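Appendix B. Extra example for self-study. Work through it before the problem class; the solution is given directly after the inputs so you can check yourself.
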Amino acid sequence: MDTIISPIALYLICVLGAIGLALALPRRNKVYEITGGLLLAGSIGLAILILGLNATETNQPLPNFFFYPFAILALGASARMITHPRPVYSALYFILTIIASCGMYLLLSAEFMAFALVIIYAGAILITYLFVIMLATQAPSSAAEEFIDETDAVAREPILAAGIGFVLLALLTTAMFRGIGDLPTPSDPETQMALAQDSVLLNLPRKVDRILDRAGILNQHERVVRNDDGTAALDIIARTITIENTDLGTTRTLGPNQWPDKLAADNLDRLGYNLMHDHPMTIEIAGIILLMAMLGAVVLARKHIELEDDLKAAQARKLGESMEAGKA
Amino acid sequence: MDHLLSINLAQMAFPEALPAITMAHYLFVSAAMFVMGLIGFLTRKNMIIMFLCTELMFQGAGLALIAFGRHHLAADGQTFVIFVLCVAAAEAAMALALVVLLFRHKETLSAQAWKELHG
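Solution. Structure tokens for the complete assembly:
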């Protein structure tokens, strides 16, 4: 199995990237920052260029044009995030990374996750991070405007860390690019695609009813036939629908030319069905994890307040009075 | 040069399978994001930034999950990303509570302040 990028080019890219990132990481001496950034950008660009050239050589389609701005934005912003000496800017660059990867999610037809990511990650989690950064960081005094805390200004072991990281990247990409050709492709593409897109409709007979009703196909007392296992009597491949009249007990079959355009499962249908039908236990576990995290956060972050003995007594008296007042 | 000019810039739309080379593009980006998060975690001393870098690693993993889900024309990849998001949210809550706790003890965000934990 030949690889997608020749190993020598791949290792060269990784070495370049490692040198670039090691130079770009924050340190007191800012001379190398720009050189490092350029080297890193060059290695990323080179990798994407080689991948693209390979695609044209083997006559495979390149990714969508919008992949390129999103990928470059995501990688550039994440590089800037780990090299920026000011924590607030790091968090803002991370938001940029998230938005760029949301773009890639959209290209991969995961619309719901893309918007959920913007709302949850960029909207909730990152704002919490920003709050903590702003609460915990002392504002630099106006006398020293360029004052940045030693903690943020100097990276710890940049060369070693960049080396380790890019060795890992080389290993990961080598393994992935070698195995990627062996990924199974749909054996019978057209059938598989139709199944992948619409098979979830079989399990949503009420949705089918609703769509058919809106398309004006159903008369009164008519609905899609339910099979014994509760699935709708649709044939996804042959595009036929069986409809029964619950009043008269008669059935009729619609051919493929009567299949309404709106009768298709969207991303949200597939995702929701998959989540609720295939992973119900995981949802429970996720709920427990979130609950535990909430309790843990409350327990960890609470503040012990030492009260004097007479203050405690006064507090107890007050509580007792209010309880008696409540009884009366 | 001819085939360079007539390249197909359109990735396949949803019901069509994703070609291997397109997968390779996305996987490269996801691996690079993961590694940047790792390097950031190792090099930065600010505890908040360290936890932010773990979120970057989550992002890299999530992109790979979505790409594989798209390749197999299944929704499982997206479902897993929902759970990754869940764990990330739980982790953010715990991490920030921890950071606040540690900050109260030493009045600094530096992880170096807790060097004695090396043992």
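Self-check: The mean pLDDT of chain A is 84. If your reasoning did not lead you there, revisit section 3.
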